[in-house]
Amino acid sequence: MTSKPKIFLTRRLPPKTMDRLQSDATLLHCDLDRSVTRQELIDGVKQADGLICLLTDQIDAELLDVNPALRVVSNYAVGYNNIDVDAASARKIAVTNTPDVLTDCTADLAWALLMASARRVVEGDRLVRSGQWQGWEPLQLLGAEVSGATIGFVGFGRIAKATARRAHAFDMPIRYWNRTRLSPDQENKLGVEYRPLDDLWGECDFLSVHVALCDQTRHLISTAAFEKMKSTATLINTSRGPVVDEAALVTALENGQIAAAGLDVYEQEPLVQPALLQMPNVVLAPHLGSSTIKTRTRMGDLAVENCLAACTGKRPPNLVNTGLTGTAWS
Ligand code: DGY
User: Fold this and answer.
1) Active-site residue 123, yes or no?
2) Which whole number is the average pLDDT over 161-177?
């Protein structure tokens, strides 16, 4: 390809990313401060060599069929459950994501939710703002002790490991479950102990969810898990909403099966179970895991690099469908 690749971008990204795209690509669509409609997505993809999209854009077979010449779907996220990867592979379209650059940022947010839930920071903020605060009280807004409490990780990839590093600073025993168990050496090095899922639920004071969303993990945390958890436990979810059965979570909180939750993600974003909105023991963030200027800019760098590489016949650095054949680089 001698001329600049035509890239369809579904929503405006940080300024540095936009500058790069404007200089190295022909931008088909940008500068929108709202989600694209399905029709806009179809029209854009029709003309593009590459697509840069968001986790809120559904990329399915029907969409991919509108342009047999599309080379790449570059997701501006590490999670890519919004993309039908098999459909892309069948059409020889590369799928890419933005791993690593958001690991610490998301771990920080998991930690912020954990601390805020445990120490009732949001409730305290509301009390102070309400003008009803009468001063220090011995029994006011008593929370859960974080230091020394046991934390369990559901999934133990990059973000979970980064969150676990933070837990060490709080002297917390660390348990984890992962589809693939680490070697004894790795477990020793990281100071973590493996538990089968069934044993993890009941042992931990805090449970932090870090699995990718797929058929096997949808509603992984549901009634059966909540029934085994400590009544004092707090659930933190910064992965994907549908990993937790939100209706079952509401029931567990209502019945006192667990004590609290800190959520960054929801089953049907931006909708949230109405009952959760009423619960003072639930801290709700609007999917902020990667939302710092530095991280969102680095995600932009990766999304552009991945897209430009595939459009110019090179293997993108963060290829998801690694077994792809029949491309310029394979
Ligand atoms: C991701 O990248 O998957 C996060 O959920 C949003 O940054």
Assistant:
1) no
2) 98
What is the C-alpha separation between 221 and 229, in angstroms, rounded? 11
Ligand 1 binding pocket includes 25 (Cβ within 6 Å): no
Strand partners, 319: 96
- The residue with tokens 């009952």 is 275
Say if ligand 1 is within 6 A of residue 289 CB: yes
168 catalytic? Reply is: no
Report CA Rg, the chain: 22
Q: Does the annotation count 269 as an active-site position?
A: yes
Is any ligand 1 atom within 6 A of the Cβ of residue 102?
Answer: yes
Note the CATH number of domain 6-100+293-311. Answer: 3.40.50.720
| Candidate list 71, 240, 296, 298, residue with the active-site label | 240
Among 287, 296, 298, 305, the one annotated catalytic: 287
CA distances from 300 to 8, 275, 303, 315 (A): 14, 36, 5, 18
Edge-to-edge order in the sheet of strand 94-96:
26-29, 6-9, 50-53, 72-75, 94-96
Check whether the bond before 270 is cis (ω within 30° of 0).
yes
Of all protein residues, whose CA lies closest to atom 1 belonging to ligand 1? 77
Range list for CATH 3.40.50.720 in the chain: 6-100+293-311, 103-284
Ligand 1 within 6 A of CB of 290: yes
CATH fold, domain 103-284, is Rossmann fold (3.40.50)
Q: Tens of pLDDT along 99-146?
A: 999 999 999 999 999 999 999 999 999 999 999 999 999 999 999 999
Distance 327 CA to ligand 1 centre (A): 27
* Residue 1 reports pLDDT greater than 60: no
What global pTM score does this model have?
A: 0.96
Predicted confidence at residue 31, as pLDDT, reads: 63
pLDDT in tens, 34-85: 999 999 999 999 999 999 999 999 999 999 999 999 999 999 999 999 999 9
Ligand 1, atom 3: nearest CA belongs to which residue? 79
